[in-house]
Amino acid sequence: MQQSKQEAQIYQEGEINLRAVFNSLVERSFLIVSLTGFATVLAILYALNLTPTYQVSSSFTSPSAASVAAVNKLNLTSETKKSIYTEFLTYLSSKDLQTMAFVEGGFLTLFNPDNSPIDDVGEFISEAIASVKVNSPKITKKKQDLGFLTELPYSVSIEGINPEIISEYLNALVAHANSKTIIGFIKLNELMISNRLDEISIERKLLLEQAERDRFSKIIRIKEEDGEKIRQINDRIDRARYKAKEDRLNKIEIFNKAAKLAKSLGVIENNLNLFKDMNAVNIAIGENNYLPDWYLYGEKALIARVKLLEDRMSDDPFIPELVTLTNQINEVQNNNLLETLETRQDDSPFIAEIVNLDVEKNKLKSTTVSMSGVNAMEISQSSYPAKSPIKPNKRLIVLVAFICSLIISILLVLIMSALKPFKKAHS
Fold it and tell me: How far apart are the first and last CA of the chain?
């Protein structure tokens, strides 16, 4: 019973307290409204005086197959879509290129329309381009699993107070990065052409040196072969002369014996008068089959023949083979191939590889590296001025100020109400 009375008393006290709080809030509602309204008005004025910040962006994808083919048209490079696109993104992210695009585009004046004095131009430019950001494509797991998106675009964005100027700058930056990338590949192709021309020159020189060595080796080989042929022919000549000499000495010996025999038999003169038919005599003499020499020629003729054979200075005129052998020596000594090789001044016409290298060299020298119409990326969306700022969020500022000021004013009224009975008790 006593517990129920206590609970009823607590309930009544709580009801009285809540009523007192509500009454105090109603009594000081003007204060609450005044404080809340004042803070809200200040927040509105503050938000209205804040400088709005805009964000613009431009998006792009990798270059077309035609652009990649144009970069590799000289077959000196093997760039891919990925390598060209990566080079473009690298340039786009470069602060040096961003600064270059800023300066060359005249944006120093555009970002400072009042022409205010600038103490540090570098710092001014750095602050102006500090918000430039290259954004990688965002793809959800769901889209990735679907697989119907072949390529998502990259984007580059910048923030600033003037949407027209920052949009113009962003487009200029993308154009600069694209141009810088293409110029880089032009220079790369020119460098590759220069290197290839140097390689061709070295290859040509090495081929000529090799051809010259081969020609000299062939000359030496031909000379050695000709020398061997001449030695062999000279050996045959020596053998023929030796044989002729032996034959002559044998004849001398034979004729001497025949002369002695003719003398011993009293055949001093020749017996050629026995043959009236001269043809028969010639045949008989040539064949020497019917009559012996001592009888046919006699002693005087045989001694005369021996004298002729002994007085002979050379047997060469009596060696029929010697003419042929001499002609062979002359032919070897007058080797036309050897003479041609020795008098040749330029081996290049006889080297097929050099002809091909010269054709390639002339083609490279006449090549002009032009990449007109080639791009390192494909624009998906150019930058355009934003219509609404990204910050500050004025509505959020006013709403936060209103809520905070309302809560603070209510707390203040509650504190004042709580202190009032305390003061009365002391008085």
Answer: 38
Please tell me whether residue 370 adopts helix, strand or coil conformation. Answer: coil
List, as own/partner pairs, every contact residues 109-117 make where C-beta atoms lie below 8 angstroms and the sequence separation is at least 24, other chains included.
110/162, 110/165, 110/168, 110/169, 111/160, 111/162, 111/165
**111 DSSP β-pair partners:** none
Per-residue pLDDT, 388:
84
Task: Give the neighbor-by-neighbor strand order of the sheet with 154-160.
Answer: 133-135, 154-160, 54-61, 378-381
CA dist., res. 328 & res. 203, Å (int): 42
Residue 346: pLDDT over 90: no
The rounded distance, in Å, linking the Cα atoms of 245 and 247 is 5
Q: Whole-angstrom Cα distance, residue 71 to residue 67?
A: 6
pLDDT tens readout for residues 258-280:
888 888 888 788 777 766 555 54
Tokens of 187: 């220079």
CA dihedral 29, 32, 37, 40 (to 10 degrees): -150
Structure tokens belonging to residue 241: 């002369």
With contact defined as beta carbons under 8 Å apart, do 332 and 229 qualify? Answer: yes
The token pair that represents 295 in the structure block: 């009888």
Give the Cα separation of 313 and 279 in Å (integer): 32
- The structural domains of the chain, with segments of one domain joined by +, span 218-364
SS3 61: strand
Query: How many angstroms separate the CA atoms of 16 and 18, rounded?
Result: 6
Sorted by sequence, the CB contacts under 8 Å of residue 16 that are 6+ apart come out as: none
CB contact at 8 A, 415 and 50: no
Backbone angles phi and psi of 60, in degrees to 5: -160, 160
Supply the pTM of this predicted model.
0.62
HSE at residue 82, side-chain half, CA atoms within 13 A, is 0
Distances 398 to 29, 31, 53 between C-alpha atoms, Å: 21, 19, 18
Closest by alpha carbon to 158, among 168, 149, 150? 168
Angle at 321 (CA atoms; ends 320, 324), nearest 5 degrees: 110
Amino acid identity for residue 151 in this structure: E
Instruction: State pLDDT tens for residues 196-215.
Output: 999 999 999 999 999 999 99
Q: Amino acid identity, residue 345?
A: Q
Tokens representing residue 409 in the block: 């004013």
Residue 416: what are its φ and ψ, rounded to 5°? -65, -40
* Interatomic CA distance for residues 135 and 159, integer angstroms: 14
Question: DSSP secondary-structure letter at 406?
Answer: H
How far does CA 380 lie from the centroid of its chain? 30
